[in-house]
UniProtKB/TrEMBL annotation:
GO molecular function: amino-acid racemase activity
Name of the protein in its database record: Aspartate racemase
Gene3D superfamilies to which the protein is assigned, alphabetical: 3.40.50.1860
Keywords for this protein: Isomerase
UniProt cross-references to InterPro entries, sorted A to Z: Asp/Glu/hydantoin_racemase, Asp/Glu_race, Asp/Glu_racemase_AS_1, Asp_race
Pfam families associated with the record: Asp_Glu_race (PF01177)
Organism: Planktothrix rubescens CCAP 1459/22
Length: 252
């Protein structure tokens, strides 16, 4: 990395929305930055992180089982803004259901995962039209990926709410014993089996690639090989964008 390059913008990260979510994002930031040539402490960007584990569960908030997440996201966004962050990254797909309520209350931009991921797919996989989505029920219910994909002329294929496939995906994420939120980096065999089966189901529905549309699924898919579909990781996409913004390769 050219030591003459100076950091242009400071990322602010709201973590804790899934125990591993921000850890995985930071791992990507470090790995990608190292791959770009960084070889000492000073060649990695400064970023601010809040481990905001007290934010209510996003899916439960969307379906009305717990309080609205908006005030919490605004609160922590403003703390990062005051600390000096120039833009906001939230490694939780479902949190983007509150984007339209949160962003107007902040003076720094919140980088949108679904829009960024959809643009990445359109740019890097122009041969694919039918995009599979695996995500929480909250993300599917609010059609976050559906809206972003269809805005670019792409078709979204996802399990129906309350279907067996979707219920199993939620188990893979949330089961208190073997779900990915519960087991962390030691992803369980039952969770991985569900991801494999769900990917085959998407392929049977005509999907040409699959989006890991939940940060826990990003963790799980990293353990899998020989899937019937290419999988796209929004976590890695956002890490690339975060570094580009931090170093000034892209404008905020």
């Amino acid at each position: 990395m050219n030591q003459l390059i100076k950091q242009q913008a400071i990322p602010g990260i709201i973590g804790g929305l899934g125990p591993l979510a921000h850890i995985e994002l930071e791992r990507h930031l470090i790995a990608i930055n190292q791959g770009r040539g960084a070889c000492c402490d000073q060649e990695y960007p400064v970023w601010f992180l809040i481990n905001a584990t007290d934010i209510p569960d996003r899916t439960q908030s969307i379906i009305g089982e717990v309080e609205n997440c908006t005030p919490w996201l605004v609160k922590y966004g403003k703390i990062l803004q005051t600390a000096g962050a120039d833009f906001l990254v939230i490694p939780c797909n479902t949190s983007h259901a509150f984007y339209d309520q949160v962003q107007p209350q902040l003076n720094i931009p919140w980088i949108h995962w679904m829009q960024s991921t959809s643009i990445f797919i359109k740019t890097n996989y122009p041969q694919y039209q039918n995009i599979g989505v695996l995500a929480t029920t909250g993300t599917l219910k609010t059609k976050l990926y559906h809206h972003s994909l269809t805005a670019l002329g792409l078709n979204s294929i996802q399990p129906a709410l309350n279907s067996e496939v979707q219920n199993q995906i939620m188990n893979a994420i949330y089961d208190p014993i073997w779900g990915i939120k519960a087991t962390g980096i030691q992803v369980s065999a039952p969770a991985l089996e569900i991801l494999v089966n769900a990917t085959y189901w998407l392929a049977d529905q005509g999907a040409e690639l699959v989006i890991a549309g939940c940060t826990e699924l990003s963790v799980g898919f990293n353990y899998l090989t020989n899937l019937p579909l290419i999988w796209v990781d929004p976590m890695k996409i956002i890490a690339e964008i975060t570094l580009d913004l931090a170093w000034g390769y892209s404008a905020i």
